[in-house]
Specification:
By secondary structure, the protein is mainly alpha-helical. The protein has one domain. It has helices spanning 2-9, 22-50, 76-90, 96-120, 130-150, 173-195, 203-221, 223-229, 240-258, 267-285, 288-294, 296-315, 325-331, 336-356; strands at residues 159-161, 169-171. A two-stranded antiparallel sheet has the order 1-2. Helix 3 (76-90) runs antiparallel to helix 9. The protein is globular and about 60 Å long. The model has no long low-confidence stretch (mean pLDDT 89).
Length: 361
């Protein structure tokens, strides 16, 4: 919206032409999302509290978590609202990548909202069944990925890029792109959801990974930088930097309320949406492997659950004291803040390593 307005104003006042630059609009998107979240946040927390939309806590979990029962949840709706409004304001609404990522994020957020609503309002501890959740995630991701796959006109838009190797690109084809995309988008959506178990644990890594993806999106959309750095040039992908900037800004503001002791929890509405958004951006920029590197904390948390379940079913024994992994370290004696900050530090190192793949080829 604002982009079109500034383009119109730039015809008479050249000062407004600076808003055509993606870098400036990315910064403005982050600040706008930050401001929206700060303004709406306190009101939303009060509203959730008055409606008694409180978090339920597992009885078999760490005993220190029992005090969190009743803390407002579904706060991810705040992030979702800030990201959507900000992207509509600063993004190019004619860009198919922006629209696809927005629709995917909203769709995954809707799945999470239904799940949360059933848990906290209908008092159904199971919420939306795992099967139904996976089905609707598959439908939304499948439609979005199919749209992208069948609208491609350049081979690099569906090739699998291997980091650190300039000339290694594995052709996936349309079907291969959709299948890989399903694992990335749906997998990361659920991975962020599994990680969201401690105050601030999931949101800060999301902010860091989204910020790094903004750089990858900008480079991929710029022919000069993409050629120089040896990454696939995806015309139009640069606009996703605005979308990622909005996620980073909204996420930082949410951390203000979600930092220990949390005033509000993200809930599935936020976790599923943010994970799906990261996965979809990585698919557009052709950086799936880099996303796995940078989002290593999300990946390990998911693997810990898979290993725990498989081990218990096959041998009757548990590998970890409790899964996901952050609970294992809590039961080992780490304080909640220690787990969170150490996981943040690990994510920061992984993000820096992921960014190094831009040059180390």
């Amino acid at each position: 919206m604002l982009l079109e307005l500034f383009q119109w104003l730039a015809k008479d006042l050249r000062v407004f032409s600076v808003f055509q630059y993606i870098t400036l609009r990315t910064v403005m998107a982050a600040l706008t999302a930050l401001a929206i979240s700060f303004i709406i946040g306190p009101w939303m927390i009060r509203k959730l509290t008055s409606l008694k939309i409180g978090q339920t806590v597992r009885d078999d979990g760490p005993q220190t978590h029992l005090v969190k029962a009743g803390t407002p949840t579904m706060g991810g709706a705040l992030i979702l609202a800030a990201v959507v409004v900000t992207t509509l304001l600063w993004g190019d609404l004619e860009n198919r990548y922006v629209l696809t990522c927005l629709v995917t994020t909203i769709g995954f957020g809707a799945i999470g909202w239904i799940d949360d609503y059933r848990k906290v309002v209908h008092k159904n501890p199971k919420g939306l069944s795992a099967g139904k959740k996976l089905f609707w995630q598959t439908v939304i991701a499948g439609l979005a990925l199919s749209y992208l796959a069948y609208r491609t006109n350049l081979p690099q838009q569906t090739n699998l890029i291997v980091p650190f190797f300039k000339t290694v690109a594995i052709p996936l084809g349309t079907i291969g792109f959709i299948v890989l995309g399903w694992f990335v988008v749906v997998g990361f959506s659920n991975a962020v959801n599994l990680t969201d178990g401690l105050d601030g644990l999931a949101i800060m890594p999301t902010v860091m990974v989204a910020s790094a993806l903004a750089i990858f999106a900008y480079v991929a959309g710029n022919r000069v930088f993409a050629t120089y750095l040896g990454v696939p040039h995806i015309p139009g992908a640069g606009e996703l930097a605005i979308f990622c900037g909005a996620i980073a800004g909204a996420g930082l503001a949410f951390l203000w309320f979600n930092a220990y002791p949390a005033e509000v929890f993200m809930g599935d509405v936020g976790a599923l949406a943010l994970g799906g958004a990261l996965g979809m951006v990585a698919m557009v920029c052709r950086q799936e492997i880099v996303l796995i590197i940078m989002g290593g904390v999300f990946v390990v948390e998911t693997l810990s659950v898979m290993i725990q379940v498989a081990s218990f079913k096959l041998t009757g024994k548990r590998v970890f004291r409790m899964a996901p992994l952050h609970h294992h370290y809590e039961l080992k004696g780490w304080k909640e803040n220690q787990v969170v900050v150490r996981f943040w530090i690990i994510t920061m190192m992984l993000v820096l390593f992921g960014l190094s793949t831009l040059k180390l080829r």
